[in-house]
Specification:
The chain is an alpha/beta fold. It has one domain (about 5-190): Glycerol-3-phosphate (1)-acyltransferase (3-Layer(aba) Sandwich), CATH 3.40.1130.10. The chain is built from 6 helices and 7 strands; from the N terminus they run H-E-E-H-E-H-E-H-E-H-E-E-H. It has helices spanning about 5-25, 55-60, 80-90, 95-110, 135-140, 175-190, and strands at about 30, 45-50, 65-70, 90-95, 115, 145-150, 160-165. The longest helix has 20 residues, at about 5-25.
């Protein structure tokens, strides 16, 4: 985890963030209910659907403070160019469930924002089943979880891309029930009409 929040990679990310934010804005990308997003670094978890690699770029452009994306499978770090891109994007490599929980808890205890895709993988056609990993971290650290729905990167969704942000969730119950709550919260943000 030595590359996470490394000043060199963060500086490159900051420049690229400005450029992509401008390009996305020109193309019509908008954020709805953005007041729920963190305005400064604080211990909280962002959760979102995940259909495409570009999802992380949209979220980086949308969230003001830095955050760590938790995470990606080790196979994506094998090739040098991809590894460099992932380090610039502040994407945590996930070797195991235990390591994921440990690293996420360390980041939250340091006052960092983290992003977790609860599907723990991409589902291009629709939102897939959720793993309990994000809920386990939220319950362990007692931090707010902010649900987000990224529209326009899933196959079949037409129109301008947008991020819809829901109200923060206070973790309670067990990992299974909280995971179900996460899924329902994200699905409730999905626009009824594709525009």
């Amino acid at each position: 985890m030595d590359y996470i929040n490394h000043p060199f990679y963060l500086s490159i990310r900051a420049v690229l963030k400005l450029i992509t934010r401008f390009i996305f804005w020109v193309k019509g990308y908008r954020i709805h209910s953005g007041e729920h997003l963190p305005k400064k670094r604080q211990a909280c978890i962002l959760i979102a659907n995940h259909a495409a690699f570009v999802d992380s770029i949209y979220l980086i452009a949308s969230v003001r403070p830095r955050f760590t994306i938790c995470g990606a499978k080790p196979k994506y770090f094998r090739k040098w160019p991809i590894r460099q891109l992932f380090q610039i994007a502040n994407i945590l490599k996930v070797e195991s469930h235990e390591q994921f929980l440990k690293d996420c808890r360390l980041l939250l205890r340091s006052g960092e924002v983290i992003l977790v895709y609860p599907e723990m993988g991409r589902n291009p056609d629709a939102m897939g089943p959720f793993q309990t990993w994000a809920a386990e971290v939220a319950l362990a650290e007692k931090v707010q979880v902010i649900p987000c729905y990224l529209y326009g990167t899933t196959n079949g969704q037409s129109g301008k891309k947008r991020l819809i942000v829901g109200s923060p969730i206070e973790p309670q119950g067990n990992a299974e029930s909280l995971t179900q709550m996460f899924r329902e919260s994200i699905l409730s943000l999905k626009p009824d009409k594709q525009a």
